[in-house]
Design goal:
338 residues, alpha+beta, Heat Shock Protein 90, five-stranded mixed sheet, two-stranded antiparallel sheet, elongated
Length: 338
């Protein structure tokens, strides 16, 4: 096709030269009707060439650009259909092969993570159980007791990591489902605050909760999944914004939505990292970097509720995370039947 394109460009250039010579000839010899007729034919020829160029080059390029963007956006395995039998067609075939290989690699990675996570659960359970049993021994003192506490703490951290990895694999292979029911969102949030509030207090962090002005009607949601979101956001605020020694949580109605905000008074997030913090496995520059999975899972949970999770730096320092949930979900009845 590119050889044909070069040939057509050569003919177009030659045609332009001919038009110029005809113009000169018409001026010198006054045979205008021949020159005009020839120029009309040449213009028609150029229009046909441009239409052919648009159909044969521009359209396939646009199709491949859209395909590349879809693959880059996570649609691994996407295939370009109905490509031509020329160089453009060969390029489309190579993009299809690349997309298929990326999909296979991603599937292999997900299966590996799932298998490793399952294998880790049994020994971690044993470590946690024995650490808790040994901790009850009153004869345990000094460095020995401190060592058992460290073992228990690190085992808890690894268990949380394994849970996040399993959640990630469920998202990847389509086993991540919601069990929607009508819930009291204020009660669910307050339970999460009670669960995590004592730990924050032990770390010297003040937790300030602003309740809604009036009672909020029941909304459709998965209570376990939403509690997972709230606890994760509180944990992030404690870890990354704990230097500010304060975390504000608020619940309010805003139009047709319910909005939960969690704001810390730490150092905030570098502007260059903000667009990426919800990406899977992304780790920023914070000294308290986690697995890079928690926020991605939270974002998925909120999106499947028909809501939106946004992260931004707050005025005066710190970070503000907002969870916006619809008070009515059109998919509620369908999910409830499942």
């Amino acid at each position: 096709m590119f050889k044909q394109l070069k040939y057509q460009l050569f003919l177009s250039t030659l045609t332009a030269v001919v038009v110029l010579l005809l113009g000169i000839y018409a001026i010198t010899q006054l045979k205008l009707y021949w020159a005009i007729g020839a120029m009309v034919l040449v213009c028609i020829y150029l229009i046909v060439i441009n239409m052919w160029f648009w159909h044969s080059v521009s359209d396939p390029v646009r199709i491949m650009i859209r395909a590349a963007r879809r693959i880059a956006g996570g649609s691994y395995g996407f295939q370009i259909q109905d490509f031509t039998d020329d160089e453009m067609g060969e390029l489309a075939q190579e993009i299809n092969v690349m997309s298929e290989k990326i999909a296979m690699a991603d599937k292999t990675r997900t299966e590996f993570i799932s298998q490793v996570s399952h294998e880790l659960r049994t020994p971690l359970t044993a470590i946690e159980g024995w650490a808790e049993t040994i901790a009850y021994d009153e004869a345990l003192e000094g460095d020995s007791r401190r060592g058992i506490e460290i073992i228990s703490k690190e085992a808890d951290r690894l268990t949380s990591l394994v849970k996040e990895l399993l959640e990630f694999t469920r998202i990847q292979d389509g086993r991540f489902n919601l069990r929607l029911e009508l819930i009291d969102i204020a009660a669910e949030l307050e339970d999460a605050l009670f669960t995590y509030g004592e730990l924050m207090k032990q770390n010297g962090i003040e937790l300030d909760y602003t309740a809604p002005d009036k009672e909020i009607a029941l909304i459709p949601g998965d209570p376990e999944r939403l509690k997972q979101v709230f606890l994760n956001l509180l944990d992030n605020a404690s870890k990354h914004g704990g230097d500010g020694k304060k975390v504000d949580v608020a619940l309010r109605e805003e139009g047709e939505d319910v909005v939960i905000t969690v704001r810390d008074y730490g150092r905030g997030i570098p502007e260059g990292e903000l667009p990426h913090v919800k990406e899977k496995f992304y780790k920023g520059s914070s000294k308290n970097r986690g697995t890079g999975i928690g926020l991605a899972v939270c974002d998925e949970i909120v999106m499947r509720h028909g809501g939106e999770l946004t992260i931004a730096n707050a005025e005066g320092g710190g970070c503000r995370v907002s969870v916006r949930l619809p008070r009515q979900n059109g998919d509620f009845h369908a999910n409830e039947e499942e």
